[in-house]
TrEMBL record:
Source organism of this protein record: Actinoplanes nipponensis
Family recorded in the similarity comment: Belongs to the binding-protein-dependent transport system permease family.
Domain ABC transmembrane type-1: 68-248
Gene designation: ssuC_3
Keywords: Cell membrane, Membrane, Transmembrane, Transmembrane helix, Transport
GO cellular component, one term: plasma membrane
Localization annotation: Cell membrane
Name of the protein this chain belongs to: Nitrate ABC transporter permease
Amino acid sequence: MTAAGAGVARVRPAGRALLGLSGLAGLLVLVELLPRAGIVSDRSLPPTSRILAALADEAATAAFWVAVGDTLTAWAIGLAVAVAAGVAVGVLIGAVPVLRAVTASTVEFLRPIPSVALIPLAVLLYGSDLGSTLLLVVYAAFWQVLVQVLYGVADVDPVAEETARSFRFTAAARIRYVLWPTALPYVFTGVRLAASVALVLAVTAELVIGAPGLGAVIAVAQTSGAIPTMYALIVVTGLIGVAINLAARRAERHFLAWHQSVRGEVAA
């Protein structure tokens, strides 16, 4: 790559970040101006300055950080269970053609069921405790991981598979040296998708069921008429979602640095 090309490659990420920040700044200005100009009522959409002030007030309280911790705890536990189960079940089903054929219709039946439809079941089993949130988070995130793992296992090169068999690799060795390197990029894609879905379901469960966390605090703020606080807490959930997505992408680039898709992304 020439010096000019390297310079362009270095500028592009900075340019994208600058465009993103300018778009965010424009949104903040718009939210500040709309209620002050009387276009929308400040009771339904407070100005940005009031939302940020409410956010600062909330961040100074211990209850806010407890709620953040509750949400992140439910998210992390649910995601970990979903990833472990999704990878194990996906490899097992994908590696055994008979199991794949037998379970195909079951997977296609259960996967489209919205997790929020399980809220009555979650309340019946666990009430408004952490378990109800975990049930919804695990169910929603599990399918994201499972489907991607199945795609990854199906993408294994049959020539490589037959070569491993001809060299009398054990089943464990074939999984480690043939199946896993092919499926790993799909696994990371599933984990990245599942991480976002898990956060959405965690907050949704807290909103609807009243389980401890940011969702429950948002519901209390809405019912008590603390609208700036409600918007401030919504902003916090958005910031957490952005941070989770950035962390997942960074981990994907780090652990898949050897893969051609990541090398191509870095080169671009």
